[in-house]
Amino acid sequence: MSPRYTVPQGVPARIFLIVSAVVAIAAIVVAFGDVAAKRAAEPAEIRPALFTAGDPPIAGEADVFRTHAGVLAIDPGAEPRRSAHPRTLATYRNLREYPGAPPRIPHGLTPDEFQNGGCNTCHERGGFSERFGAYVPITPHPEMGACLQCHVGNGQLMAIALPSTDPSARCRQCHTPEGGAWNETTVNWTPLAWPRVARRAAGSGPPPIPHSLEFRGNCLSCHAAPSAVAEIRTTHPERADCKQCHLPSDGATAEYVRPTRTGGVPRGGTS
Amino acid sequence: MRSVERREFLKGIAAVSAATAGSALAPGTLLSATTGYSQDAQSAVDWSKAPCRMCGVGCGLLIAIENGRAGAVKGDAASAVGKGLACAKGYYSVQALYGRDRITRAMIRRGRGLSVAPMSEALDLVAQRLRETIQRYGKDSVAIYGSAQWSIPDAYVASKLFKGGIGTNNVESSSRLYAASAMAGLQTSFGLDGAIGCYEDVDQADVFVLWDINLAETDPVLFSRMLDRRRRDRSVRIVDLTTRTTRTSYAADRSLLHRPHSGLALANAIAREIVARKWVDREFVDRHVAFKRGKTGIGHGLTDDALVADEAIAANGGDYESFLAPYTAERAQQISGLSAGDIRWLASLYGDRARKVMTVWGEEANRHSRGTWLNNVLYNIHLLVGKIASPGNAALSLAGQPSGGNAVHDAGSLSHTLPRGLVSNAVDRRRAATIWGVPADTISARPARTALPLFRALDRGDIRFLWIQATNPMVSLPNLSRYRRAAAKDGRFLVVSEAYPTPTSDAADVVLPAAMWLEREGVFANVERRAQHFEQIVAPPGEAMSDAWQMIEVARRMGLTRLFPWERRDHVARIWEEYRRFHTDDRSALPAISELRARPGVIWPFVGGRETKWRYNTAHDPAADRARGGFDFYGHADHRAWIWLRPHEPPAESPDRAYPFWLTVGAVLEHFGGGAMTQRIPTLHRSVPRAYLEMNRDDANRLGIRNRETVRLVSRRGAIEIEARIDYRSRPPRGQLFAPSFDEGVPVRQLMLDAFCPLSGQPDTTICAVRVERLGGRNVP
Q1: Secondary structure element (H or E) that encloses residue B619, with its range
Q2: What is the mean pLDDT of residues A39-67?
Q3: Cα–chain-centroid distance for residue B198?
Q4: Among the four B183, B219, B267, B333, which has the fewest Cβ within 10 Å?
Q5: Nearest in space to B526 (alpha carbons), one of B59, B50, B49
């Protein structure tokens, strides 16, 4: 859609950005016009929504097909940014008490965010956050609006909500004396083991999905885009149907043995 | 409306941004091991091409061989089918060769059990019993039942041995269960079997109508190709016409639910709308289409030998219009449950001259006691608007097996076919007799029994010797216990060539160990007429032997060596070259074996080094006569495609008070056929370990059934126990149930009515009426 640029620096950069923005808006207008025109040509009977309220999709089955928003974290023509906090499995696990746990909120919230939960402003579509100097992780379930029902913060951090892009203030939104410490010492508890990250050596096939898809059927939200955890980022985000190759895996399932029961139907043989 | 447009737009740029962002932002942090294949290229690993054998799409694979064993799979980027992509079944397919309970030695029944015997002794016994049975009961008392998992050489040898050698047309295959109506549909509408277009239609169509097919699970790579097409062009629409909400529905732009057995009413209503709105392509219809009326009220194949010979009575456009008159959108709404508005909208997609339309259907539509008719009426729609046989305008019936297009029928694997022809056609019989070097009267002109009547004849004792290869009928037949009892009766001799123990091999008197794909050379041909060759790249285990060579060994023991004068090392090439002699003209010319070995696949007719991608289109098909305009439908003597007047008729069985639910059975992505291969592949087994019954939440609540509770599922044919799942993978509407059919431990086909399409003989093994009973809440672990 957009040509590839070599990115200028300094004042030309500003002009460049303005021009880019104009070009981008023009492209959007053209694209919308195109879609709208084609839509208008269709008969009036077409219903805009595939699913009615009484027939919600089965999460985990439907979500792999609705993940595209998740990779909008960077405009194709935009300059790649250096994230202050590239996500790795270490940082990912640090925010989760056990595999599948809702992640804790590692940063402060404004009073408004804390009261009204404006999380989706950033976490629905991702992108680069000037406020934190990092690419924003994308939620796999933006339709669930009550974020703070499951995702809890840290009282120390909540107390210092100061959205700021000033580099000196930016860090203090998370890094307070106690704010960043998630190390629990009051419980003697060992969480479930983390799933092994599949190393696809030749012969092992596409890695199966090692985790439950409950609330996490939206594969690309975690496995693609610049905010994805580096070790589990897919090389082929353009493939829409993830579960064509990557299968859910229940590690507890016993290996296959021929059944002795045949559900009440005669076996037909005598062996 | 606004938000949908926005989402469409976002979808379009998302993929682009993903691709650029991924590489730009995290150099060196990608999964480095995913690029491991290039390292293999430097090591001693040898990659060989082979078509995937796990469905009818026919993706090109590359198989890694290390120390004589198949150790890895990747998509073959040179393949025009998958273009480097496979699905889970393909990626794990090679593990099917290495199951722990693989049959590697022959087994002979002694008393109640099977005991291991040398292969030569087992082959001697098979030949002896075959000879004795023919002597005692006549040549029509012996039969072979194979499948579209046969490679073409296997099917060819079966046809030559039984039809040319023994002189009986008792060669049937499970293709009858899966593809017979597709074949009959093409033959009645176009006069010739074999797909009209090819998969490139997917890259060019603007609208896809998926007619009763859960393409995301049955043909995943083709579905991905469709999603790719939509990603490149936001105006592309995928419409899912379905009886239940599936993974395909979620990916589609629109999902339209309709009741089972309403396809004919829907298609006729769409045709009526096209005619009424004057969307008919007059020039195309006047020049290239004829109208035919066939027999009606043809029954449902419930009595033995109920096949009907149809007649084609000439009709005209006016007759067709009067025939369509009762099929108003409102009447079709009453029958189908799909709203009249949606029916008109579907018609408008076909009627819009600016859009190229591709309709795709598969086994779920074909396994229907009016399967041939349904194929006819879908072609009718495309013929009315002239959207057929040109790039992006297509009507394509898919098949689930690796030779499932028409390859295996064309080699003569059905009871009415010969290599390139029909037993009832004197020209075809003469050609076969000449090439085979047998007296012309060896080949009987009378078609033998189709699949269900064949097994009914086994039940009665008219068939005394049955050899089953590459298929598992004791899981796949409807009304299963009837045929399981038949196979176990005294005085029936059952030979089963298998790679794994199955309910079919359990019933055998002799089990012959079968060499699988990659353990023997062969040729499959997929749905788009693409012949794909594979070498023997690993050694078969123990005494396992290919199906073709097992038959040749038996033929030699019966004194028929002159029909099979080939060496084991080159017999596949020799068979292929002999089979090619049936296909010498532009209408069906086949590529040479050298061509097949060199390329990932070749579409036939292969004329002057060129593939014929769109048959009947004079710009693409050298057999089509340009003097006839843009198209020449040369399959029929009048050079026209036929629009058939096919009415909606009620099915053999519908839900009632005693059996209030529709049960649909079908496929899941992870498993193939009766599960003998895929259940033994650990990753596939863990993903779907056993069959289950999906029901609507409201029905479950009403009956007090909890998720994962074991229930009893009862039809007029019997009962099975099965685990209920609610909102699991797909979601049936109220009054409907779905169960996958892969699991020998939960043989759902037991419940099915053994009705069949009286024109094609294809059994109606998809849907029947059942009830659900609670077992008192006993749960499975």
Answers
A1: none
A2: 59
A3: 16
A4: B333
A5: B59
Domain that holds residue B4: 1-30
Q: Which two tokens stand for residue B293?
A: 């009326």
Q: Does the pLDDT of residue A185 top 80, yes or no?
A: no
Q: For position B122, what pLDDT does the model report?
A: 98
d(CA A130, CA A165): 6
Query: Is the predicted pLDDT of residue A38 greater than 90, yes or no?
Result: no
pLDDT, one tens digit per residue, over B614-636 is 999 999 999 999 999 999 999 99
Q: Is the same domain home to A100 and A227?
A: yes
Q: Which residue in the set B30, B112, B249 is minimally distant from A233, CB to CB?
A: B30
Chain-chain contact of A268 with B507 (C-beta, under 8 angstroms) = yes
Distance CA B750, CA B714 (A): 10
Distance CA B445, CA B423 (A): 5
Residue B555 CB neighbour total at 10 angstroms? 22
> Residue B481 contacts by C-beta under 8 Å, 6 or more apart in sequence?
A265, A266, A268, B717, B718, B750
Q: Are B290 and B383 within 8 A, CB to CB?
A: no
The arithmetic mean of pLDDT across residues A190-219, rounded, is 79
Once rounded to an integer, what is the mean pLDDT over residues B482-497? 94
Rounded Cα distance, A176 and A173, in Å: 7
A122-130: list long-range contacts, CB under 8 Å, 24+ apart: A123/A147, A124/A69, A125/A69, A125/A70, A125/A72, A125/A73, A126/A70, A126/A72, A126/A73, A126/A225, A126/A226, A126/A227, A127/A72, A127/A73, A127/A74, A128/A73, A128/A74, A128/A81, A128/A83, A128/A226, A130/A165
Whether residues A111 and A230 fall in one domain = yes
pLDDT of residue B98: 95
Name residue, tokens 């710009």.
B619
- Percentage of chain B modeled with pLDDT above 70: 94
Residues of A in contact with B236 (CB under 8 A): none
Which residues of A, range 50-69, sit inside 8 Å of B by Cβ? Answer: 50, 55, 57-58, 61-62, 65-66, 68-69
Higher pLDDT, A249 or B362: B362
Indicate which CATH number applies to the domain containing B367. Answer: 3.40.228.10
DSSP conformational letter for B623? T
pLDDT at site B259: 95
ipTM of the complex: 0.77
A262 shares contact with chain B (CB less than 8 Å): yes
d(Cα A139, Cα B339) in Å, to the nearest integer? 37
What's the confidence (pLDDT) of residue A226?
85
Confidence at residue B9, expressed as pLDDT on a 0 to 100 scale: 36
A26 and A85 within one domain:
no
The CA-based diameter of chain A, rounded to the nearest angstrom, is: 87
Which residues does B662 contact at the CB level (< 8 Å), separation at least 6? B243, B259, B260, B655, B735, B736, B737, B767, B768, B769, B770
Domain span at A1? 1-48
Hey, what amino acid is at B441? Answer: D
Distance from CA of A49 to the nearest CA of B (A): 8
Chain A positions touching B345 (Cβ under 8 A) are 42-43, 45-46
Q: Taking Cα atoms as reference points, which of B109, B31, B94 lies closest to residue B64?
A: B94
Q: Which of residues 434-463 of B touch A (CB under 8 A)?
A: none
| Average pLDDT of chain B to the nearest whole number | 92
pLDDT digits (tens, 9 = 90+) for A259-269: 876 655 555 44
Could you give the number of structural domains in chain B?
3
Cβ–Cβ below 8 Å for B506 and A268: yes
Task: Say if residue A39 is in the same domain as residue A62.
Answer: no
B26 shares contact with chain A (CB less than 8 Å): yes
The answer to whether B316 contacts chain A (CB < 8 Å) is no
Among B376, B425, B367, which Cα is nearest to B399's?
A: B367
Gap between the Cα atoms of B566 and B546, Å rounded: 14
By C-alpha distance, the chain A residue nearest B501 is: A258
Q: What is the pLDDT of residues B99-132, one digit of tens each?
A: 999 999 999 999 889 999 999 999 999 999 999 9
Mean pLDDT is lowest, of A41-50, B183-192, B529-538, for A41-50
